[in-house]
């Protein structure tokens, strides 16, 4: 986490540093992202940077957390807008919406999405910690959705919400590997931000199948 001195900065200056860091880490992997580039463009002394962040790792993890939280905020805002226009359709439809809206975030915030993609598909000394932050941002919203599903009767009353949340997060997190493999996508290209033609209809069919498995299970009975 950044030091308190970073949060004590004027909002405009703090945002400028953050925006420049997002550009840098979206354009380069962890090893090649340059603190020197960021401080030079921000017009601050390098010593000042180390009053705000402990090191490059500290800044990188801050950006991962920021990107992950902004994605959740985007999903929640989009879902709220959908609810204002039509009657809610229950747990499984809302869960599907979360998956689909997440792909819309990717298109609307390409630099933040690229930072998450680099965490997912690239290599860094702190990859595991970065992925834990990505998952942590989703945990409470999914748990809240499960709780509502139990309350409304969409989910079984004897369901363990913690376990259900774990299963959903584990499955949704694994989609980052399953979808590229299923669709023949090059994860190296995704990590490097290269243009990749993604069949979004095929992606949504995968979401539909996953929701069906959650809803009905895999047994024949």
Task: Give a structural overview.
The protein has 221 residues and is an all-alpha fold. It contains eleven helices and no strands. The protein has helices spanning 4-7, 11-27, 35-42, 46-52, 56-85, 91-108, 110-121, 127-152, 161-183, 187-192, 200-216. Helix 6 (91-108) crosses helix 7, helix 6 (91-108) runs antiparallel to helix 11 (200-216) and helix 8 packs across helix 9 (161-183). The chain is globular. The mean pLDDT is 92.
In the predicted model, the low-confidence regions spanning at least 5 consecutive residues are none
The average pLDDT value, as a whole number, equals 92
Helical stretch tally: 11
What can be said about the biggest beta sheet?
A: none
* Helix percentage range: over 70%
Terminal-residue CA separation? 50 Å
Q: In sequence order, what are the helices and strands, one letter per element? A: HHHHHHHHHHH
Q: Structural class, please?
A: mainly alpha
Q: Give the tally of β-strands.
A: 0
Shape: globular
> Roughly how many Å is the radius of gyration?
19 Å
Strand fraction equals under 5%
